[in-house]
Every structure is written in C-alpha cells, then in structure tokens.
Amino acid sequence: MEARQVMTSPTITISPAATLRQAIELMLEKRISGLPVVDEIGQLVGLISEGDLLHRSEIGTEKHRSKWLDFLLGPGRSASDYVQSHSRRVTDVMTNDVVTVEETAQLEDVVRLMEKRHIKRVPVVRDGGVAGMITRSDLLRAFLKAAAAREKTPGTDEEIAAQIHASIDKQDWAPEGSIHVRVIEGHVTLSGTIFDERERDAIRVCAENASGVISVTDDLIWIEPTSGSFMIPTV
Predict the structure, then answer these.
(1) What is the pTM (predicted TM-score) of this model?
(2) Exposed e or buried b for every residue in 35-57, given b needs 16+ CB within 10 A?
(3) How far is 32 from 132, CA to CA, in rounded Å?
(4) Where are the alpha helices (DSSP H) in 11-93?
(5) Using CA atoms, how far apart are residues 206 and 84, in angstroms rounded to an integer?
(6) Per-position pLDDT tens, the chain of length 235
(7) d(CA 34, CA 3)
(8) How far from 155 is each of 85, 167, 184, 206, 222, CA to CA, in Å?
(9) How far apart are alpha carbons 119 and 110 in whole angstroms?
(10) Beta pairing partners, 106
C-alpha cells in the first residue's frame, strides 16, 4: 500500500507569518494536532504541532535550567529557548527540519520512519508542495477499510481452507505439513501437531484472518520435542 492511498488530502496548512493564536485556533477548530507550514508559493517550509507549544510563557511551562547548565550550554541556547517560549509567530516556533515522504512511498516504510523518528505525522510531498498528510489516525482508518474489504469476500469453505493453508505455509515458524484444516459453513477446525506451544495462537490467528471465517476450534496437539510428552487443548 502506498502513502497516497491512506493520506488525508487536501491538507489544512498555515503561513509562517501567521500568529500562534491563529494556528492554535485552527488546530482546535479542525480537531488536528499539527499543521504543515507553507510559504506564499505553496512550498513546505516547516511543521507546527502541539509538541512545539508545550513550553510556553503564557501558561508558565517554559524551560528553566540550572545556572551551571546554562553556563555549559552557552547564552545562545538560552536565547533560542526564549524565542521558542515567548514568540507569537509560527515561523519562530515551528519545526524546520520536517520529515517527509513521497506519494509513492510504501506504507511499511512510512511507519518505520515514524517509529524511528518518534513522530506522529508525516507530510506527503509532491514537487516540494504538500499533497497530503499521514497521521496515526489515517493508519487506523486504513486498517478499518482493509478489514471491511476482507469481510465482504467470504468465499467457499474450500477457498477458506486454501487461504488458511497458504497463510500458514508462508510463515517460517509454522510446522511443515503437520497442520490440518477443516471448514464447514465458515466454521474452522484446526488439528495436527505443534512443537512449540506459542505456535498455537499464531496458527489460530492465521485462521481467523481468512475471509469468511466465523469461528475457529483448536484441536491442535502440542508435543514437547525433548520428552515427547503432549498436551491437548482444554477449551
């Protein structure tokens, strides 16, 4: 799945010349936590979010450092902190080094980037302008859409069984050739042997994720490889 398939577009933006009050009012009105900042020709120049507004003099949350730390960091750092907590202009408070992705970026790469950089939103760019925005909420909406699409294509019992077998066969952890799947009117029964108890839930999830599955019964038998002892599910 590509970024353009899940991004929110068009995206609400703001000018770097806008005031913080305007930015905050816009975020509250639109119920969003961040705004791309674009210049007069529509080029992305920054991003302002709730995180940029945590340390503000208006609410008494500006940063206070000890004198020895101020001495070590130098007056320049303190001056920058002062601008961040006292300026009323978006251009002074926004994040300048914005992480972006192209429209064709794979969603797995976008998620990996969000995790690595510890960010909650990523602007999607086209020719330097903002084509859309991907947030964690967009990922949740994509999940619901994919889940709904899967539920609309139930398939026959034979197709369901084939889906489950294919899903299990793709997994490196799955026991090869020892899992049997029986499907009757969407109700799945799993039988066979496993050699690690943790495989039980994973195989069940493979079955539950197949389109058209109504229920899954676990009749798998766990055999302990060393001793040969076995365990039959009690539920």
Answers:
(1) 0.71
(2) bbbbeeeeebbbbbbeebbebbe
(3) 14
(4) 20-30, 67-73, 75-86, 90-93
(5) 50
(6) 899 999 999 999 999 999 999 999 999 999 999 999 999 999 999 999 999 999 999 999 987 766 666 656 666 777 888 899 999 999 999 999 999 999 999 999 999 999 999 999 999 999 989 999 999 999 999 998 887 777 666 679 999 999 999 999 999 999 888 999 999 999 999 999 998 989 999 999 999 999 889 999 999 999 877 665 666 665 5
(7) 18
(8) 59, 15, 12, 16, 30
(9) 11
(10) 2
DSSP 198: H
Tokens at 37, concatenated:
């900042």
Burial class (CB in 10 A: 0-12, 13-18, 19+), 110: buried
| Domains of the chain, CATH where assigned | 3-145 (3.10.580.10), 157-231 (3.30.1340.30)
Widest CA span of the chain, in angstroms? 75
Phi and psi, residue 70, nearest 5°: -60, -40
